[in-house]
Design a protein that fits this description.
homodimer; about 350 residues; alpha/beta; 434 Repressor (Amino-terminal Domain); Rossmann fold; 3 domains; six-stranded mixed β-sheet; four-stranded parallel β-sheet; 10 strands; DNA-binding
DNA sequence: GTACTCTACTGATACGCGCAACTGAAGCGC
DNA sequence: GCGCTTCAGTTGCGCGTATCAGTAGAGTAC
């Protein structure tokens, strides 16, 4: 009579616990736990199981994540720490799929925009995730700190793979390679590379540029002519000037991303240059604006679903102690060919 | 002798607990708790406090969030459930500031991209946040479920304010108003409204459009000519046709956002129309591409910092049981005037 | 009838922490 | 010497769950 049934008016109705379910089903808390968790090697007849499940459903019982985390030492959360550079729609849909795919494995996916001046450790304190995923590789002592805090694994999405499965092998070089191959196939022999003005993304840009460089070397083209392109009218004009006055003249540009590619297209128009006739441009990301720009923008699109599934697989393998998956040869990305090339 | 001191080689080193700190400092666990939490009304001399703090630092002690959450019934996490529509850089920087500002109040901010087919409740189970923030208003029974799960408060960022502080008063009408006023000030008498093709954002679009409508009425202009603008070449061309053939002809367009505004500019150019001479265009968001497009795009920019601070204040007030803050008259947003108008 | 096994559970403990209640000693007024 | 207060802590409970170790009872073996 002390329990549930209907809390007295005014009093906060407590959420039901396993004990409430046990009481209602006429069994012990242990049995409830065994039934609801399908604990193996426990002999419990189906009738009892039914009774427990019914009681749980009646009460709207939901196990307390906090209590579970307390026992297990970690919660069922996968924490992605966002980088300080702006994330666009591509990342957005990657996260969406990650959320789904990790959910299928019983993990809850959350992201945390890292606030400047706050140590990363403050975040684990509040979440105790099963795994921490970052964009760039954490230093060894950060990883040590994580382990000391009881979080075993961390994974970086981008960075130089270290072979220990700690850094995911997402081939940004491949992105640059696709750009360069596409332009080379269209007959361009002298490529430019539009380097982002934002220094925060230079890690990524470096990798993509390397892909372009290698491809140029492989195909016998000249080194790509790298020019920084800040997102200002002047910045774009300068870069265009660099490419147009180079000798031999740059006839096609690989841009770090679509924002920069679009800026170059617009800048070219301003100077009376025709895209793609005077200058071909290829971006990365397939932003919404890319398909309706004038001219429409050729770009490299990531298969975010495939990417998310690959990342999920890696994460789950880590957590289960299985060896890292063999990297698929090409993590889905492809050239969307439009008017700008 | 059973405890700590140095785990045998091979064994996982357990993370230090308050008991370890207590042992090292030569006090009881309770004292450790009192010292580290600065619990008021506890008389503990500074020397002892120092000893405890030193021991904690030596061991690298970090309190277990799980245990704390278990006692308090909620964690110190503010959970933002992302909408299913794509989020852009504006939201990104809003989140960044939210993370910082909430952090100042001891809350950890995380976002969860909602995965289709998974009930929202699965997420609370795994996080037990102090507060759940959504973009659109949850239904009453979802809110009830939340409360039954022990989470007292939820807040929606956008939606019709209900006066109970449950829905934040972020004036999207104001956005439309600023757009319309800007165009009217430039002498335009017949406005168009570019309605987003994506139905998922219609709640927001509705509010912004209402702002435009009211402003037109206030200023004695005709009703805005609303045309849907899907992000395809055809879609844009159709909308332009609608506006150009209307009588009187539409001379300026308020777009739901910059993506659509840029698409309209590009589409106009394709048809040989001059922007802003034949058609003025104003967007919302100030995307990176807006400042370097051709022509550069006039747009409404949100002051994400001010917005984040307002949201933070509201959340903290809710959690502390203080009344909702008076809505600032204008939550920072302003027109960035460029070439397209 | 005893010894053993198997079924179907239950009891108790531990996880790490916060907090209420208690204690032992010192200080103080008279 | 007594009662009272303040100091400086400690003991112990409870949050909700997972899980190990146990156990009453039924069934079988001989």
């Amino acid at each position: 009579m002390t329990s549930s049934s209907r809390a007295p008016k005014g009093a906060k109705r407590r959420r039901p616990t396993a004990a409430d379910v046990a009481h209602r089903a006429g069994v012990s808390r242990a049995t409830v736990s065994y039934v609801l968790n399908n604990t193996p090697h426990q002999v419990i007849p189906e009738t009892t199981r039914e009774r427990v499940r019914a009681a749980a459903a009646d009460l709207g019982y939901t196990p307390s994540a906090a209590a579970r985390a307390l026992i297990k030492g970690r919660s069922d959360v996968a924490l992605l720490v966002l980088p300080d550079w702006p994330i666009g729609p591509t990342m957005g849909s990657l996260f969406e799929r990650l959320s789904y795919a990790l959910g299928e494995h019983g993990l809850t996916f959350v992201t945390h925009p890292r606030a400047a001046g706050r140590p990363l450790s403050d975040v684990w304190k509040a979440i105790t995730p099963a795994i921490v995923v970052t964009f760039e590789d954490l230093g060894q002592d950060e990883i040590d700190k994580l382990e000391r805090a009881g979080i075993d694994y961390s994974v970086a999405l981008f960075g130089d793979p270290r072979g220990d499965g700690r850094v995911m092998d997402i081939p940004q070089q491949q992105t640059g390679r696709l750009q360069a191959e596409h332009l080379a196939a269209a007959g361009h022999r002298t490529l430019g590379y539009a380097w982002p003005g934002d220094p925060r993304v230079s890690t990524l840009a470096e990798q993509r540029l390397n892909g372009v460089r290698r491809t140029c070397a492989d195909l016998g083209l000249a080194e790509p002519n790298v020019a920084p392109v800040p997102l200002t009218l002047d910045g774009v004009a300068q870069a265009l000037h660099t490419w147009r006055t180079a000798s031999p003249t740059v006839t096609a540009v690989c841009a770090y991303n679509d924002d920069i590619a679009l800026a170059i297209c617009a800048g070219a128009q301003r100077q009376g240059l025709a895209v793609p006739h005077d200058l071909a441009v290829i971006g990365v990301d397939d932003l919404p604006a890319a398909s309706v720009a004038s001219p429409t923008l050729t770009t490299v699109r990531f298969d975010t679903n495939a990417l998310a599934d690959y990342i999920t697989d890696s994460i789950v393998r880590r957590l289960e102690g299985r060896p890292a998956a063999k990297q698929p040869t090409v993590v889905g990305q492809s050239v969307i060919c439009r008017e700008s090339t």
